[in-house]
Amino acid sequence: MSLNLIRDPWLPVLRRSGPGLIRPAQIAEAHATDPIIAFDWPRADFRIAAHEFLIGLLRTACPPEDEEVWAAWMEAPPSPEALDEAFVPIAHAFDLDGPGPRFLQDMEGLVADSEPVERLLIEAPGDSTVKKNTDLLVRRGIAQRLSRATAAMALYTFQSWAPAGGAGNRTGLRGGGPMITLVLPGADPTLWAVLWANVPTGERPVAADLPRIFPWLAPTITSEGSRTVVPGDNAHPLQCWWGMPRRIRLEFEAKPGVCDLTGQTDEVVVTGWRQRPRGANYAQWGKEHALTPQYRVKPDSEVLPVHPQPGGIGYRHWLGLVANTKDDLRYPAPSVALWRAYRGSRYPAHTRLLVAGFDMDNMKARGFVEAEMPLHRAADREAQEELADRLIGSAQEVANALRQAVRGALFSAGATVKLDAELFATLRERFWAGTEADFYALLGAQAGGAKPDFARWLDSLRNVALQLFDEAAPLDPLSGGTVAQRISQAKRNLVFTLRGYGKAGAALFSLLDMPAPESGKTKAKKGKAA
């Protein structure tokens, strides 16, 4: 019997009372007495992708018509029966195996060599890495067989976030490893609250639209002849939730087995997959997905999806994740913008923003990034954004001054130094991490009606910068005369900037709306004039 991802229970979840297995329609079951609080996948990428899957399913099958309808289901979630009924028109598109169309798999049988099933996992080593025996950190042999439920989640994650995969193997609709942001409403939200908080309003599609939404219901629009898949042209905009860039067929083995990732027993297991190149080449989808932040390279250029970068995620990314940057080149995900503009007014100030995604280096996953930040409700959003811009800008000024000071302390003049080298990258990340708590405290205080305390912020920047300088360039009795002189001069320059002197110091004080101190020359001129 085939697995249907709508009708059958396959999603592992945690209720307040313990673990369970549900079908999608049960996501709000027993919401008042024993609600589901989280997905229970053993991998972080699966947990985030499962949120995308359910949010996409709700947006496709039963989107709120307007904000009032959205609010009604937020307060009184739908019953399993109501969701079952809403999912009926699209359930046929969610068979993972069986004789008909298969979820996220090419309609053709695909003649190709078999790939190990573990290569559905984005971080798994590829064929070249295995042949060269260079899979040192992420080893081969992660999994040899998967249950169908696990394979379905792996396939959805892979197709949604597909990285570059060699000649003709296309990246995901949002590029390889897109950034995902999720609004987490309230202090202790249920899973239903998290999902519904991020579902955009819209209209239900009609039956004729389904092959343009679920591309596996129709012959693949291959990229041969430079063909592209464009929203509104040859694809429905809702395909943003169901992109299928890779031409894949899973290989099933009809005998009971144990999943190597979850330990779940299944009567049918997935042992491999086949792939053919030149699947869908997605173009112009940058602004379609509700959960991914966006950017432009320059004004009026194409909108592109944001991807995580080395160094993790912190408050320096607040502009672009929560609000537009001043140059209007980076924008938050539509779901975040909608929350700040309308939905957030209904919820307390404990709302947070979850940011996650793979940090990719072309075909290689450097790591999976996951972070949370407060999403303060503000009576005056423009004032909040102005404050954030000043705080982040001033922190950037100090981070630059710290980097230059450490460079001057450790290296002689004229030395060639890569400022993105590990020492400087670590220094930068420690500086941002060390000042993060005060950043959010100041935003929170403003949300509560307090005026910005820039003096407190400047103290925080100074203290962290000087502490990090002393750790990176310690001045000890064994330091040679030249080295000691270089370190002392570099620290004087840093202190000089932190007190508002020089070009960098003036820029710092200007951002904090503080008067720059008078230089010695200015004081001398005033003395003569007197």
Which stretches are poorly predicted, pLDDT < 50 over at least 5 residues? Answer: 133-137
Number of individual domains: 2
Termini distance? 96 Å
Order of helices and strands, N to C?
EEEHHHEHEHEHHEEEEEEHEHEEHHHHHH
Radius of gyration: 27 Å
Kindly list the characteristics that best describe this protein.
530 residues, alpha+beta, four-stranded antiparallel sheet, 15 helices, 15 strands
Task: Tell me what you see in this structure.
- The protein has 530 residues and is of the alpha+beta class.
- The protein folds into two domains: 11-341, no CATH class; 389-529, no CATH class.
- Helix content is 36%, strand content 13%.
- It has 15 helices and 15 strands.
- The protein has helices at 44-61, 67-75, 80-87, 127-131, 148-161, 191-197, 210-213, 318-321, 334-341, 381-410, 422-447, 454-472, 481-498, 502-511, 520-529; strands at residues 11-15, 18-22, 36-39, 114-116, 146-147, 180-184, 247-253, 257-258, 265-266, 269-276, 294-295, 304-305, 330-331, 352-361, 364-374.
- Strands 4, 5, 7 and 10 form a four-stranded antiparallel beta sheet that branches. It has a three-stranded antiparallel beta sheet with strand order 2-1-3. A three-stranded antiparallel beta sheet has the order 6-14-15.
- The longest helix is centred in the last third of the chain and has 30 residues, at 381-410.
- The chain is globular, with a radius of gyration of 27 Å.
